[in-house]
């Protein structure tokens, strides 16, 4: 959670990470407030899934994004790269169909849409991004370009 909001009304997952971009949501925190207790359960369920959490780590070879998306199939998840080096991860979990004779005792699993966006750094190889989905975990790997070490040329001193 960010302590300092960005100038454009968005929020950063980490104030120290200039590449983290979350889509601004005017209702952020609303469903955790006392007012939310009066909302229908379907609205609370949709909101719970809308805030999918994603880990981003950097290794010497790549940037790796991991998202826990239990119960989703790879066809229900979309990974895009937009202009401006923006990685977008989105998807939707549909609500289970209710039958007339069903009697629900508890509904805790969330449903709804989610959308997360991240600005990739300059060293990202945009044409080599790969995504895999295994056991409900989406992994997006963005390879990094090798750092070009400055060439040092010795200058002979005359005299």
From TrEMBL:
It holds the Pfam family HSP20. Residues 45-159 form the SHSP domain. Signal peptide: none annotated. InterPro entries: A-crystallin/Hsp20_dom (IPR002068), HSP20-like_chaperone (IPR008978), Small_HSP (IPR031107). The keyword Methyltransferase does not apply. The keyword Cell cycle does not apply. Keywords: Stress response. Belongs to the small heat shock protein (HSP20) family. This is 18.1 kDa class I heat shock protein-like. It comes from Durio zibethinus.
């Amino acid at each position: 959670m960010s302590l300092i909001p960005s100038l454009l009304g968005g929020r950063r997952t980490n104030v120290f990470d200039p590449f983290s971009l979350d889509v601004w949501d005017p209702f952020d925190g609303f469903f955790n407030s006392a007012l939310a207790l009066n909302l229908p359960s379907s609205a609370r369920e949709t909101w719970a899934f809308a805030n999918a959490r994603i880990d981003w780590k950097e290794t010497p070879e790549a940037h790796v994004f991991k998202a826990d998306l239990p119960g989703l199939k790879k066809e229900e998840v979309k990974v895009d790269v937009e202009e401006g080096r923006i990685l977008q991860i989105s998807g939707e979990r549909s609500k289970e169909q209710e039958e007339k004779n069903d009697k629900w005792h508890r509904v805790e699993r969330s449903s709804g849409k989610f959308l997360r966006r991240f600005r990739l750094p300059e060293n990202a190889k945009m044409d080599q991004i790969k995504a895999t989905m295994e056991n409900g975990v989406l992994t997006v790997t963005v390879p990094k370009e090798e750092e070009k070490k400055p060439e040092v040329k010795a200058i002979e001193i005359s005299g």
